[in-house]
Amino acid sequence: MTAHDAIDMSTSAPVGAGRRTDRAPIPDDKEMLRAAVELTRDIATARPEIYWPDMLASAAIGYGALAGAILLDNPWAAAASGVVAALALYRALLFIHELTHIHRDALPGFRFAWNLLVGIPVLIPSFMYEGVHTLHHARTRYGTIEDPEYLPLALMKPWSLPWFILVSLLLPPALLLRSAVLVPLGAVIPPLRRLVWERFSSLSINPAFRRRPPEGDFARMVFWQELGAALWALTLLASTIWLGWRPLAIALVVVAGTAVLNQIRTLVAHLWENEGETMTVTAQYLDSVNVPPPALLTPFWAPVGLRYHATHHLLPSVPYHALGEAHRRLAAHLGAQSTFERASYPGLFPLVARLARSTMRGG
């Protein structure tokens, strides 16, 4: 959810990339691309017996733990419950990434159920990612000014990285403001409606991105999701009259925790070293990151298959539960010295350190 990630957190993203002109274009590794297709044909189908229990259990654990964080008197127990809530809801929220890639008929009812149970309650309905994330995977858009999910972070100033993380704390109040105030006002003020849609309706980090108006069936889906999110946001604000601000404040803190987790994951999802040029598929793969086993903490900060983010860029239609097997097959077939292995890294902290060193050199 890349997110992250906020009401277009790109509006606060750092800008001012430096120049890096010492890189020759990377040609496509045709053997790797061919193997990626041929070795994964039999595992490219989304399995409902995995998707449904995973999403439902994550949501149930998240909301149960959130209730504990609100209701428990012991502050340590409440804090621990809040951490569990943030981790579980983070996993549940990241199914929004799967919704952008699976075929619309692959999992009947899954999109509706996810929006009803997760997207609308957290004020991140699926339209905020659908139709946006696919642009990030477009062959001629990745890493360019037209990519909503790309910034050359490795070429920016060193202070850009902590700012990139801290700005995600604005996600919960931003989402609440968007759905409870801006969307209802936009219903009667067309210029505001256009502004909200263009700038504050996508999970993007590129401040130059402007979203095009929705059309057809997608526009109808947006209408109902916006209506549901607006009614829920107004209900949350109204609840403070009877319950006070404490329950809502705790919920906002938990959502902020999921936002920070997603922003950290986004920070190391790519190397962020492209300066805006069109890249080959292999170059896009090498600018992306895999953190395969034995890294133990990766399932917590990169769940739902996102530890195999580079492999996902090779095979965007392969469902999350098959990415591990796809990665193992390709690694075994192509070998330890292959282009494929060059996108694998040992863990979160080495990636953050690499990115920080790059900003110190290039920024």
Automatic annotation (TrEMBL):
InterPro entries the record matches: FA_desaturase_dom (IPR005804), Fatty_acid_desaturase (IPR012171)
Renumbered residue ranges of the record's region Disordered: 1-25
Start and end residues of each Fatty acid desaturase domain: 75-336
Record key words, sorted: Membrane, Transmembrane, Transmembrane helix
Transmembrane intervals: 50-70, 76-96, 108-129, 163-189, 221-242, 248-264
Pfam families from the UniProt entry: FA_desaturase
Statement: the UniProt record of this protein carries the keyword Transmembrane helix: yes
UniProt cross-references to PANTHER family, sorted A to Z: DELTA(5) FATTY ACID DESATURASE C-RELATED, FATTY ACID DESATURASE 2
The protein, known as: Fatty acid desaturase
Organism this protein belongs to: Novosphingobium album (ex Liu et al. 2023)
